[in-house]
Specification:
The complex is a heterotrimer.
Chain A (H helix, E strand, L loop, with lengths): L3 H23 L13 H28 L2 H33 L7 H22 L5 H29 L13 H45 L4
Helix pairs in contact in A: 1-6, 2-3, 2-5, 2-6, 3-4, 3-6, 4-5
Chain B lengths: L3 H18 L2 H20 L4 H32 L3 H7 L4 H31 L10 H23 L5 H29 L5 H27 L2
Helix pairs in contact in B: 1-5, 2-3, 2-5, 3-5, 3-6, 3-7, 5-6, 5-8, 6-7, 6-8, 7-8
Chain C lengths: L12 E10 L2 E11 L4 E6 L5 H9 L6 E6 L11 E4 L11 H11 L6 H9 L15 H13 L5 E5 L7 H16 L3 E5 L12 E6 L2 E6 L11
Classes of the chains: A mainly alpha, B mainly alpha, C alpha/beta.
Chain lengths: 227, 225, 229
């Protein structure tokens, strides 16, 4: 088991390199947008990965509230941190793509806006974790994660309806996608998911190590200061 | 099991009595609300046509800021003399405390809105082109949406550093769909531009979902030390 | 005089390896003890010894990191009706009068009517008719009103955390007298203080704490101590 992480890391590095090659050289040029469109292969998989990680966070939070398992709390923390990173990638690549193609920096695109709100919710989650008293943090954070999850469908509907009232451009274009592009997209998604797993795993290990250190220190303080 | 209703009522009346006795807090909040309206009026000074379009947004943003000031206040009272401990060691249910605080906040914020709304109408020469009565359910549902989560997050913030900034930090992201609904509904009603029904229903859904979540989870965060 | 519900062999209050940690700091490091009914326990020790944490754990305000607390056979939360808590802050609303404060807390315990509130206020030698807000009381009066709040629901067990801080000697002696009466009437009292001399001759047992543990239990304050329990 100990070897798995480094092996997976190497495999992921190779996969990412291959996915990059596919995205930049192999994938066909988009008719109207040209090369800029290739950012799509980073924008979309990042979004899917972020949503996946936030789902993991929700499940871990619920498990924590039911079982008070410290492992569940660690998984919640890790998935939130890495999820925010991927979210940031989506929010940065979106405008970079939109500006040259559609001439605007921002649009209330459904996916982009949803990502923005999720980013805000999870940044507030991370701030809460940092600012609260260490013994109560897991509980408060888990409750906030649940509130965030309840919010998501409401955000989705409000943006969706808003867009029917105020038509806005759609980033990424709608409609069907060339099967060759789909192929490249899926490869990139696989690479990003593996990358997310590697980073999360590493971070999880780091977190558990840190907790073990804290535990040992407090046990030391428990056993005897002077006697 | 102790009656939820009687304790909620007792706590609410106690809070109203306390608020009335230390009127400084309300007075300064009222003045703050007035200031917000005036500053907004200086910053956004459009002609009548445009004002109807953006008034919805302006009013609710102004209410949001006034609400945050109010929300931060109401739990502060329970921290003085550690009086919250007296509630926690009693057999009284946590939900009664939450409901009482939320209802108290609702009354307080509604009071602030009742002062700010007419001022907005005056400064912006607002007149509703759509069914004006619909503004009432929008105001009630919208205010409850801000207050129910605001009360809950204010209680959460008690256990954190930088308490005052923590509340808006947690509240604003989660409130986005509610704020959007309030703003859109108000804009539609003022401009007479279609039906606000969808937004009112969305607000109602938001209120139901989060009131339930708050009632279910309040005990957990109250007993967190 | 035995309480039919509680079997005789179960101690009134029992702590089993109680550990309470705040982050890396361990306030209670494995406290195990049993306490009998109807006795007056005074808890002493330096600052940071864990006295306040112990009391808050008994009150249900601090949740144990590990270990158990049993009060009358129940958890502190379940036993809340039998426990009264008082601390150095008054746990009262400064803007209301004593009677108004107690009326509110009476509702939390489902106590109807004013009689009980008036009775309790008189029993701590204060005047129920006094309309002055509690915030304007002297410290001695405030502590007595806080005591009134703590005994409002006639609990079997009283927890008091530094009730004599900043209180004049006369009021302090009065409060000790009141507590003695309550102990004689059958209540169990746990009192944390730095002013142990006030309790000499009144307390049944002195519990000494150090570094989050109970190190000794004695029947008196004399240097030639009787020996640990």
């Amino acid at each position: 088991m100990k070897r798995t992480l480094p092996i997976l890391a190497v495999f992921t590095a190779l996969l990412l390199a291959y996915a990059f090659y596919e995205a930049i050289w192999v994938a066909p040029m988009e008719r109207t947008m040209g090369d800029v469109q290739r950012i799509f292969y980073y924008h979309v998989p990042s979004a899917w990965t972020a949503f996946l990680l936030f789902t993991v966070n929700l499940v871990a939070s619920v498990v924590y509230l039911i079982q008070r398992s410290p492992k569940a709390d660690a998984i919640a923390l890790v998935s939130a941190e890495v999820g925010v990173v991927f979210c940031t990638i989506v929010l940065v690549t979106g405008p970079i793509w939109a500006r040259p193609v559609w001439g605007i920096w921002w649009t209330w695109d459904l996916r982009l806006t949803l990502t923005l709100v999720l980013w805000l919710i999870y940044v507030s989650y991370l701030v809460l974790r940092r600012f609260s008293d260490s013994s109560q943090t897991p509980k408060l954070a888990a409750v906030l994660a649940i509130f965030g999850a309840l919010d998501v469908p409401l955000v989705y509907f409000s943006i969706w309806f808003f867009r029917t009232q105020h038509p806005q451009p759609v980033i990424g274009g709608g409609g069907s996608i060339d099967p060759r592009m789909l192929h490249v997209l899926l490869i990139n998604w696989l690479a990003f998911s593996c990358f997310a797993v590697v980073v999360c795993w590493w971070r999880y290990r780091l977190e558990m190590l840190q907790r073990a250190v804290d535990e040992a220190e407090s046990l030391e303080s428990l056993m005897g200061v002077q006697q | 099991m102790i009656s939820l209703r009687s304790i909620t009522v007792a706590t609410l009346t106690k809070d109203i009595r306390l608020e009335w006795r230390s009127r400084d807090a309300i007075n300064s909040m009222l003045f703050f609300s007035l200031l917000v309206v005036v500053i907004f009026s200086f910053s956004f000074d459009p002609n009548a046509e445009e004002s109807r379009e953006i008034a919805g947004g302006l009013i609710w943003v102004a209410f949001l800021f006034a609400a945050v000031v109010a929300l931060n206040q109401t739990w502060a009272r329970e921290l003085r003399n550690q009086v919250l401990d007296a509630y926690r060691v009693s057999p009284a249910p946590a939900n009664a405390l939450f409901l009482a605080k939320a209802l108290g906040n609702f009354i307080l914020v509604s009071l602030l809105e009742a002062v700010m709304a007419p001022l907005f109408m005056i400064f912006y020469n607002l007149r509703a082109l759509g069914p004006a009565w619909q503004l009432i359910p929008v105001a009630i549902l919208g205010t409850w949406a801000l207050v129910v989560n605001g009360t809950f997050f204010a209680a959460m913030s008690l256990r954190t550093r930088s308490r005052e900034i923590m509340l808006p930090l947690l509240l604003f992201p989660i409130s986005i769909p509610a704020v959007q609904s309030m703003v859109e509904a108000t804009r539609i009603i003022l401009a007479g531009d279609g039906s606000a029904r969808f937004w009112i229903v969305l607000l109602l859904t938001y209120d139901v979902v989060f009131t339930t979540a708050c009632l279910a989870l309040f005990e957990t965060i109250l007993q967190a030390e | 005089m035995t309480d039919a519900k509680i079997p005789q062999h179960l101690p009134h209050v029992a702590l089993n390896n109680l550990i309470k940690q705040f982050g890396r700091f361990a306030a209670l490091r494995g406290v195990s003890a049993e306490f009998a009914a109807g006795r007056f326990y005074v808890i002493l020790g330096d600052n940071g010894a864990g006295k306040t944490t112990l009391l808050r754990a008994l009150a249900g305000l601090a949740h144990p990191t590990r270990g158990t607390i049993s009060i009358l056979g129940k958890s502190p939360h379940e036993a809340c009706r039998e426990v009264g808590y008082m601390a150095h802050p008054s746990l009262l609303y400064d803007e209301m009068s004593g009677m108004e404060n107690l009326r509110y807390f009476a509702r939390l315990y489902e106590i109807d009517g004013d009689e009980r509130c008036e009775q309790v206020i008189r029993s701590v030698r204060l005047d129920p008719e006094l309309g002055r807000p509690v915030g304007q009381y002297s410290q001695g009066m405030r502590q007595r009103m806080s005591l009134a709040r703590a005994i409002l629901h006639d609990p079997k067990i009283l927890l008091l955390d530094e009730p004599f801080s900043n209180v004049d000697v006369h009021s302090a002696r009065e409060i000790v007298g009141l507590l003695k009466e309550m102990r004689d009437a059958g209540k169990t009292i746990f009192l944390v203080t730095h002013q142990a001399s006030l309790l000499e001759g009144v307390a049944d047992e002195f519990v000494w704490m150090q570094y989050g543990q109970i190190v000794e239990r004695t029947a008196s304050l004399n240097p030639a101590r009787v020996g640990p329990q």
